[in-house]
Each structure stands twice: as C-alpha cells, then as structure tokens.
Amino acid sequence: MIIEVTGLVKKYKDYTAVNGVNLSINEGEIFGLLGPNGAGKSTTMNTLLGLLRVNDGTVKMFGKDFSKHAREIKRSVGYVPQDYAFFETLSAIDNVMYWGKLYGLRGEKLDKAVQEALEFTGLWDRRKGIAKTFSGGMKRRLNIACAIVHKPRILFMDEPTVGIDPQSRNNILESIKIMNQNGMTIIYTTHYMEEIEVICERVAIMDFGKVIALGSIEELIDSISTGNRLSLELVSNTETAVSVIEKTDGVTACNNINGVLDIHLEKNERSLTVLLENLIQNEYEIKSMTMEKPNLETVFLQLTGKKLRD
C-alpha cells in the first residue's frame, strides 16, 4: 500500500469533519473520493497532504509515518487544487519554474523538468504566454504542470476539470490516464460522476465524515439493492396500468411522468419477465421501452440520499 490511513479524525471545536476514516490505497491506482458537499472529502484530502493537523489517527505514505517524515514524503507528492495555484501575472514557464525551484530542482535538471511538464500538458508552445490571458482549459492544464514538474509518485487532484469545456475535460482525463500508466498513483475528487466511472479503479464514498462504501465500481453496484430502471410507454390506459404495475412482484416503484412510466425493479433476474408477463396478461400494449442499469450515480443516491451535484 502506498497510502495507509487509520482512524483519521479531524475536529473543529464541536464539529467533527472527519470521523474515523480508514483507507488503503494501492500503488499505481487511480482512487476516487466521492461525497456530497460537507461529507468531509476535502478535509480528508487536506489532512493527507499535511495542510491540516489531525486530532487522531495515523497517515502513512511509502510505509512512513507522515507526522514523522513529512518533509521527505512531500518531495514525492503533488497537489492540483480546485483553485489556481499559479501567479496570473507570470508566464506559464515562469510559473512552472517557480514550483520546480520550490521542490529543489536547479540548473539543467530544472530546465528539463519544466519543459517536460509543459510539453506533457500541451503548453510548451504557449510557455511565454501570461497566465491571465489563458482560457479556462489552459489554466487547468497549467495547474497540472505546476503540480507534476517534480515528477511526484502520488498526485492529489481536487476538481481538476471544474468550469471547462468538454474537449478540455477529455484532454485532461487522457493526461491523467497517461500519468497513471507511467506509474503515478492518483487520488481524485470531482462532481462529475462520469469522470470517476471512466478513470477510477476504486472509489470511496464519504458522508458525514465517514467512509460509507469502498470498492471497485462493479463491487459498489453489486452491493446495493436497486435493480434496473424502466421507462415504459403504453399505447393506452396508462393511468390504470400504474396500480397494476405497483402490485407486481419485483417492482419497487412506479410513477407516471407525462405519460411515461418510470419503473424501478428489484435486483432480481425475474423482475422484468414477471412485469412483462403481467402487462400482457392484463392486455396492456407496449409502445416503447428503454432500460437503464444501475450505475455509480444509483449507488451514490441510495447510500447518501443525494445526487453528487446537490
């Protein structure tokens, strides 16, 4: 394990923001940290980075206690915050140079590292451009360049794609995959559920300062009771069909939304078959039907009672 967190607690007077968090993160994985606003994920990330002092618990990275080896550990850790971590009035190259020097790089080693960081993020041709003139996507890429100039083994990323267009978002996600393929361990938070589904191998879901679920996306989906969801349109008699469907074994909910039936099924292979047989038996004719399988959003909603962006 490259990161081991045991019994982590962070309090602010009478408020407990992080309450006994345990995490084990494997070297070389992309690990997602999800939770509604106020769940404690940002506080957890800040304590792992050493930006906040913990009240209880231990954090180990590379097998070493963070509280005893913080300076050594931080040399191998990078952080991409949600806010911009560069100077708006400096050029891209000067910003990355600044961060490289903070991490102790000098001379040819610094020059090479800065060039590689800017080339990787697609900013080398704009290296002399002033940061404040950059587009939102370019600023997000500059944020990443500043965080990876020292080639960290662990990279924390907090909402790295917020406020940018889909193309820029996809470019950043591809960059994250490449960094991971090159051996970097990445801890990732976002409000975009689809990003987690695309890049993360395992996910921890937090609520009220605790980890309430942890595993691969497939494991998390298998852990919930919610089954498939149907959108069903009948040729006629939609209103009377609602009560028939609600009484069908394996149906947990049925709502008529502007003539389209929104049906939730139990996680049971027979649920759909029983429903269709019941409709045919009661002489209801189906006009159209689409089925949606449970996904990470379904898991999140069932566990927290909220949507991620609430």
Automatic annotation (TrEMBL):
SMART domains, alphabetized: AAA
PROSITE patterns: ABC_TRANSPORTER_1, ABC_TRANSPORTER_2
Example GO molecular function: ATP binding
UniProt keyword list: ATP-binding, Nucleotide-binding, Transport
Pfam families recorded: ABC_tran, DrrA1-3_C
ABC transporter domain ranges (all copies): 3-233
SUPFAM superfamilies per record: P-loop containing nucleoside triphosphate hydrolases (SSF52540)
Record protein name field: Antibiotic ABC transporter ATP-binding protein
Source organism of this protein record: Lysinibacillus xylanilyticus
